[in-house]
Design a protein that fits this description.
Nucleotidyltransferase, domain 5, five-stranded mixed β-sheet
């Protein structure tokens, strides 16, 4: 079964052709990151206009000259995300479904991120704990089976990736902040600046990064001269430590067989190292960096396991969709 996955939830316009659950035939991504770098963050209207510009060329490239008859179904992200960007992907997919007379499968973007772990030759075992960590989301979910998601905890304010971005902006380092902080931290001292680990000792599975952002701002005002490498290493450690500790705690509490990481922040090398050092490799799944960010391949993989094709008439964009919600 070949599924064409379409993703347009934020600033990437992506399409991929995936055969069955694991064979990625094509995976094409057009990003408007360069435009958002100039403005220090994502402007929703700009992102939506770029989606309109790239959506059809990206789909055409993903098909790689194949005839439409070779595609068995389409899949599209319906949420969560920016409403303008989502509408571009959803309405395009609905139109193609109608014109091509192909079934259309709606996909929860956050759940789909976790399905990147099925695309690289290993098969996770249920029950599993999933940590989805990105610029807009930080969620811990219990996955009992395909599409049986129970949200156990998550951020109460800022997402981990948002904390990276905003603290990088304080230093004038540019956008997106996560990769810049990660690079600087490679040669920094993570113990140089004392930054808090919010909620790390609390008996729950929640996170909070707003206070850490405030503490970083106060530190910069207090210190006459900040070493950017040491600051980056200290900030990175303060973000990563609660993510690792609480994920391991919930995995032990629920006696799961597998831990799955997903989302853009899971590409952070320090985060990957900390998890790898604490968990036996057969139990830990982390996608390759190219599959951590928004892409169409994980949308198609998610759709393969759900295979809940519906009429294109019943599919609508839902920017507020939660990670445990079906579509």
């Amino acid at each position: 079964m070949k599924i064409l996955g379409i993703e347009s939830s934020c600033d990437e316009t992506a399409a991929a052709l995936v055969e069955n659950d694991t064979k990625v035939i094509s995976n094409v991504i057009a990003s408007s990151l360069e435009l958002h770098t100039k403005t220090g963050g994502i402007i929703p209207e700009v992102a939506a206009r770029e989606q309109l510009k790239y959506i059809l060329p990206v789909i055409k490239e993903a098909l790689q000259g194949r005839e439409i008859v070779e595609v068995d179904a389409l899949a599209v992200t319906v949420g969560p995300g920016l409403i303008g960007s989502l509408l571009v992907g959803v309405e395009t997919a609905k139109t193609l479904s109608f014109v091509w007379q192909k079934p259309l499968i709606s996909v929860n973007h956050l759940q789909a991120h976790l399905y990147a772990n099925w695309l690289e030759g290993r098969t996770p075992v249920f029950p599993a704990i999933g940590l989805v960590v990105s610029g807009g989301h930080t969620d811990l979910v219990l996955i009992k089976d395909h599409h049986e998601f129970i949200r156990l905890g998550g951020t109460r304010d800022d997402a981990a990736g948002e904390c990276f971005d905003k603290c990088a902006r304080l230093l004038g380092l540019g956008y997106p902040g996560g990769p810049i902080i990660g690079k600087l931290a490679e040669t920094g001292n993570p113990k140089r600046y004392p930054l808090p680990r919010p909620m790390i000792s609390q008996d729950n599975y929640d996170f909070s990064f707003s206070g850490l952002k405030t503490a970083a701002f106060a530190l910069m005002r207090r210190e006459k001269k900040i070493n950017p490498h040491d600051f980056a290493a200290s900030l990175q450690a303060a973000i990563v430590e609660p993510l690792v500790e609480k994920t391991l705690r919930v995995a032990e509490d629920y006696q799961v067989k597998t831990i799955l990481l997903a989302g853009g922040v899971s590409a952070n090398q320090f985060l990957r190292q900390q998890f790898s050092q604490r968990i036996p490799l057969p139990e830990l799944f982390i996608p390759s960096p190219k599959l951590c960010t928004d892409n169409g391949a994980c949308i198609a993989a998610n759709a393969f396991f759900s295979n809940k094709a519906v009429s294109w008439k019943g599919i609508q964009a839902n920017p507020g969709l939660e990670i445990e919600e079906g579509v």
